[in-house]
Amino acid sequence: xxxxxxxxxxxxxxxxxxKQRDDYYATVIDxxxxxxxxxxxxGLITLCNPAAEEISGFSRKQxxxxxxxxxxxxxxxxxxxxxxxxRTGITISDxxxxxxxxxxxxxxxxxxxxxxxxGSGEHIGAILTIKDITYIRELEAAVRQADRLxxxxxxxxxxxxxxxxxxxxxxGAAQLMEREFEPGSELLxxxxxxxxxxxxxxxxxxxxxxxxxxxxxxxxxxxxxxxxGDILLLQKQSVSGREIIFISNFDPSIPEIxxxxxxxxxxxxxxxxxxxxxxxxxxxxxxxxxxxxxxxxAKKERHSRMVAIEVTDDxxxxxxxxLENIWTPFFSTKSGGTGLGLTICHKIVSEHRGMIKAESxxxxxTKFTVLLPLVQ
Length: 376
Ligand SMILES: Nc1ncnc2c1ncn2[C@@H]1O[C@H](COP(=O)(O)OP(=O)(O)O)[C@@H](O)[C@H]1O
Ligand SMILES: [Mg+2]
Hints:
- By secondary structure, this protein is of the alpha+beta class.
- The chain has three domains: 32-132, PAS domain (Beta-Lactamase); 134-214, Orthogonal Bundle (Helix Hairpins); 217-376, Histidine kinase-like ATPase, C-terminal domain (Heat Shock Protein 90).
- The protein is built from eleven helices and twelve strands.
- The chain has helices at residues 15-31, 50-56, 60-63, 68-71, 76-88, 134-180, 186-212, 224-238, 261-278, 320-323, 341-351, and strands at residues 35-40, 45-48, 92-102, 105-117, 123-132, 220-222, 243-249, 257-259, 282-299, 302-313, 355-361, 365-373.
- The strands form three sheets. The protein has a five-stranded antiparallel β-sheet with strand order 2-1-5-4-3, with helices on both faces. A five-stranded mixed β-sheet has the order 7-9-10-12-11. A two-stranded antiparallel sheet has the order 6-8.
- The two termini are 31 Å apart.
- The relative contact order is 0.08.
- Bound molecules: adenosine-5'-diphosphate and magnesium ion (MG).
- Magnesium ion is lined by residues 270, 273-274, 341.
């Protein structure tokens, strides 16, 4: 990584210097953060750097000397690009259509394939660079999601304003009626149902308005572990009688972050309540935190360090077809659910310039990951 310190060896035929020079070139290629794979004109891999090992899931030992087309047999687009460059000697880039399937995951990648040309002009193979763009894809998805939610949120808030006043009238009238009926009368029961249900609508409306409110953030230094600790303490009491184990795995080195404490409390309370709702009589809820030193989120030209907080449960999980709907207002699979909890979580995280994602293994559990910048 520090070419400044390794002076480029001078030209010499001395064996030692030749080796130093080879080492120097090898270090340069190994230090490139993108995957680099060199393929000779017969299609054999002659070189592969650590970043390529990581993206492809093949070790350098497996890759070097192997046939590129065999190793990447599933990646037809990639094979076409490489064989075309070897055949024609032109540079080909593709930032949209290539994925690498390895070790059970699919990694979206941006690739460029350059012809490998000798000083004499002879083409002797191709150099393939591979960049992992998972992170870019995640950001793109987050932007699409935020767009969709902001339109829905504005619509819903408009509706909520319209409903709020007549609802107040209905509840007031029902409360007056309640006083008129004798205890034990059937009409009194009906009236109480009316009051209870208007309260429920009122709760939904308050959540909706909160979703669309331009309240802004009240920023101050916040101790995340204290927030989580307080929530867990209260929730432990609320599940007494059920066999739910709470596990906290906090990274003690996380400093106070600059955030809105009330909003973060609501965010984590929603996630933890959902996890508890998901587990029936017994289960295990794990809350963990860590600082991500290698995860940066663009903030104009500055970069900010992030903390990751994970809420994991071993409940039934979320079916694949529901996973993209859980952030949508009113999507709920619970009989008494409003379906607004996760929409509010999404909004709180976006306002903090963070990211939230859900991963679920149906039948085994769900993990919500929240990434928040250390400073705003
Ligand atoms: N930890 C979880 N395990 C399984 N399903 C979950 C979990 N968290 C959220 N969900 C699903 O997402 C839906 C939406 O959650 P949310 O927006 O909080 O609304 P609500 O809790 O009112 O249903 C839930 O109804 C449930 O189907
Ligand atoms: Mg909820």
